[in-house]
């Protein structure tokens, strides 16, 4: 899989710069099928939606996230798999799936908004 | 054990009882139901996913998002409230303030004024070492002096008649374009969204002279940057009548719901009977569950994957654009984490301690 370049900061969270975004806390160096990933500067927004996508993967036996302390702006995401893929691969697949889902939601929404004859336009809004 | 219909209800509906909400969380995960493949399938998702726009107004819209999990719908809602950036007044340089309002209260009130400027045309100012430029800062001036109205009638009692500028309004803010901002915003000058927001009141002899610097920010840091008044969703109510409700009882049944939810019409036997006309209007107050006569006759549920989204913009961006921005932000979040995951090397080999 090719490396994904970080996207321009126009939509990014403004406090991430110079800070570490990502850490791995391995459970067992010899067993990559379970690990805890630390994602900095994220909260329930990404945590819960990503947990849902990762749990949709049949190779994943457990996935959960927590915010270990309310003053520390980070989430811990725990992933355990049945061994057919590593925990990191399961996380990567979850991210891919969430991107694909969001892109489809965005396209559908924009198409529906463009179909101005299908809904009511109030107070002379410009669509 | 559950029969097929009960299981189906459990999977697709959130059931509301008088004292509790039954099975609120989704069960659609691989391995939960034998013989069913519930793993993520984009094609299957595309088949089931629907968006139905209800209406779009200048500042508000409503649409239905059908076929997603609450985790996803909630991510969009949270991003709308806390992570879609806007421009808001962040620095207030007080040159003179002789009004009765303290500088810090004045600054706080000024910050909350929605500023009509497309945030996508600005960049974030990153800390104090990042110099303000015409790309990351908007400047407004507020210079107001209150004086006696020389033309006031002797009988005038209202301050608005007796004095000039006794009310300091958001329309008193004057945009001071910097650098190339005049050309960039020639078609859409930067201004407060609403002109008659009362900032403070003054009396003759009092004066305010402040310079205001707007910066780009997000609602998570301060609510003044939130682009929405509210962004919320609710699940579509689904009211099931289990046994016919007829006669006077039907009229009492109708009164348990907001107008328009229940229709009472003569049935085939010529008897008045209650039917569900428009469950969407229901607020799910659960009033009906307080009456013994309707026990075992009605079941209040909500459709688990049918979200009625409502977005009320503050007027800075139209609501339909806000949702598009929210979706892009979620995609961007994933891309940033993905890049960090790849850079960490965790994907290549088992990690070493």
TrEMBL record, chain A:
Pfam family, one: RNA_pol_L_2
GO molecular function, a single term: DNA-directed RNA polymerase activity
Gene Ontology CC terms: nuclear DNA-directed RNA polymerase complex; RNA polymerase I complex; RNA polymerase III complex
GO term, biological process aspect, one: transcription by RNA polymerase III
Domain DNA-directed RNA polymerase RBP11-like dimerisation: 35-107
Compartmental location: Nucleus
InterPro entries: RBP11-like (IPR036603), RBP11-like_dimer (IPR009025), RNA_pol_Rpb11_13-16kDa_CS (IPR008193), RNAP_AC19 (IPR033898), Rpo11-like (IPR022905)
Superkingdom of source: Eukaryota
Principal location listed in the UniProt entry: nucleus
Gene3D superfamilies cross-referenced by the UniProt entry: RNA polymerase, RBP11-like subunit
Alphabetized UniProt keyword annotations: DNA-directed RNA polymerase, Nucleus, Transcription
Family: Belongs to the archaeal Rpo11/eukaryotic RPB11/RPC19 RNA polymerase subunit family.
Protein name: DNA-directed RNA polymerases I and III subunit RPAC2
Organismal lineage: Eukaryota, Fungi, Fungi incertae sedis, Chytridiomycota, Chytridiomycota incertae sedis
From TrEMBL, chain B:
GO annotations of cellular component type: RNA polymerase I complex; RNA polymerase III complex
GO terms for biological process, alphabetical: transcription elongation by RNA polymerase I
Location of this chain's protein in the cell: Nucleus
Pfam family, one: RNA_pol_A_bac
A molecular-function term among this protein's GO annotations: DNA-directed RNA polymerase activity
Domain DNA-directed RNA polymerase RpoA/D/Rpb3-type: 60-340
Keywords: DNA-directed RNA polymerase, Nucleus, Transcription
UniProt KW Nucleus keyword: yes
HAMAP family registered for this protein in UniProt: RNApol_arch_Rpo3
PANTHER family: DNA-DIRECTED RNA POLYMERASE, DNA-DIRECTED RNA POLYMERASES I AND III SUBUNIT RPAC1
Family named by the database record: Belongs to the archaeal Rpo3/eukaryotic RPB3 RNA polymerase subunit family.
Protein name in UniProt: DNA-directed RNA polymerases I and III subunit RPAC1
Organism whose genome encodes this protein: Powellomyces hirtus
């Amino acid at each position: 899989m090719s490396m994904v370049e970080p996207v321009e900061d126009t939509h990014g969270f403004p406090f991430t710069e110079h800070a570490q975004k990502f850490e791995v806390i391995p459970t067992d160096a010899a067993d990559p099928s379970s690990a805890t990933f630390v994602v900095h500067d994220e909260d329930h927004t990404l945590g819960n939606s990503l947990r849902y996508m990762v749990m949709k993967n049949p190779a994943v036996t457990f996935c959960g996230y927590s915010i270990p302390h309310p003053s520390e702006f980070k989430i811990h995401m725990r992933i355990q798999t049945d061994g057919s893929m590593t925990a990191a691969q399961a996380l990567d697949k979850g991210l891919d799936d969430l991107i694909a889902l969001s892109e489809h939601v965005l396209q559908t929404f924009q198409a529906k908004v463009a179909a101005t004859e299908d809904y009511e336009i109030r107070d002379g809004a410009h669509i | 054990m559950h029969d097929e219909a009960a299981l189906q209800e459990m999977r697709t509906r959130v059931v509301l009882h008088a004292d509790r909400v039954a099975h609120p969380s989704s069960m659609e995960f691989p391995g939960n139901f034998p013989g069913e493949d519930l793993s993520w399938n984009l094609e299957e998702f595309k088949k089931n996913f629907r968006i139905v726009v209800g209406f779009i107004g200048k500042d508000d819209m409503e649409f239905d998002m059908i076929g997603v999990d609450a985790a996803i719908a909630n991510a969009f809602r949270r991003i709308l409230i806390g992570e879609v950036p806007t421009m808001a007044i962040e620095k207030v340089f007080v040159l003179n303030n002789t009004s009765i309002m303290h500088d810090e209260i004045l600054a706080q009130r000024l910050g909350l004024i929605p500023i009509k400027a497309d945030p996508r045309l600005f960049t974030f100012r990153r800390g104090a070492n990042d110099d303000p430029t015409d790309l990351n800062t908007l400047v407004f001036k507020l210079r107001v002096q209150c004086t006696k109205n020389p033309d006031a009638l002797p009988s005038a009692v209202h301050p608005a008649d007796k004095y000039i500028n006794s009310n300091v309004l958001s329309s008193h803010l004057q945009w001071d374009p910097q650098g190339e901002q005049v050309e960039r915003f020639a078609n859409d000058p930067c201004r407060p969204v609403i002109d008659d927001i009362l900032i403070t009141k003054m009396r003759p002899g009092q004066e305010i002279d402040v310079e205001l610097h707007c910066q780009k920010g997000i609602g998570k840091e301060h609510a003044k940057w939130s682009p929405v008044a509210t962004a919320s969703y609710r699940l579509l109510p689904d009211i099931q009548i289990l046994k016919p409700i007829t006669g006077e009882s039907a009229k009492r049944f109708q009164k348990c719901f907001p107008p328009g939810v229940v229709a009472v019409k003569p049935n085939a036997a010529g008897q008045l009977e209650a039917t569900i006309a428009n469950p969407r209007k229901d607020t799910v107050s659960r009033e009906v569950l307080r009456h013994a006569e309707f026990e075992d006759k009605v079941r209040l549920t909500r459709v688990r994957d049918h979200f009625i989204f409502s977005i009320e913009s503050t007027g800075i961006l139209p609501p339909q654009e806000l949702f598009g921005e929210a979706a892009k932000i979620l995609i961007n979040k994933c891309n940033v984490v993905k890049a960090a995951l790849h850079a960490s090397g965790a994907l290549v080999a088992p990690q070493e301690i």
